[in-house]
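We both want to read discrete structure tokens more fluently, so let's practise on a single case. Would you write everything just below, so we can both look at the same thing?
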Amino acid sequence: MPGLGTSFGRGGATTAQQDLANADAILIMGSSMAENHPVGFQWVIEAREKNGAKIIHVDPRFNRTSAMADYWLPLRAGSDLVFLGALIHYTLANERYFRDYVVHYTNAPAILRSDFKDTEDLGGLFSGWDGKKYDPETWLYEGAELDRTLEHPRCVFQVLKRHFARYTPELVEQLCGIPKEGIRPRQYRRDLLRGRMDAALDRSANHPRRLDSPTSPRQHRAAGRRHPRAARSRFDSRLD
């Protein structure tokens, strides 16, 4: 990561991965941490074993991280921003944020200028668009005034809340393919994966074999091969 190296002198992560062991919920999105960062993934497992942390993996593919997670969200490729927008909407609408931190250590209480316009006011564009590029003049704060109650209609918090209100569970279901009734639990994931393996084994069973092809587990072992049913049983034991 050249940007991190230029800014901080080091191109790796700027946080201590050991602190993941203290988490009670971990969202993994954009990678298969169990495969790409197996050393760091040990702290995720420690959080689950010691704290009962819930591990949520967002990825179109089922991989090793998905197998270790409590919830796997197989969203459609390219719909990441819709999913993240829905998380922001849920957090703000249900007050699941750390209010003291938001009020004192973010720009949420800052008040924007009266000529700032959001996308719903200008047909999908923010104010300042001249046809080629944005002029951020209207995006500035209106002086140094702060609203620590977070109730002013033009404070950053309220603008953010209105902007992300469009990311509803129905929109996520439509664009991401994740059911609004809830995320898919581990049992559904087991059934789904086993169903895929059954279909693959059925295709293999119906495929015409050569006359000398081994068909039983004993014949497979004699030929130095692994019988597909044996692979199935070992795979199932890891899921249970």
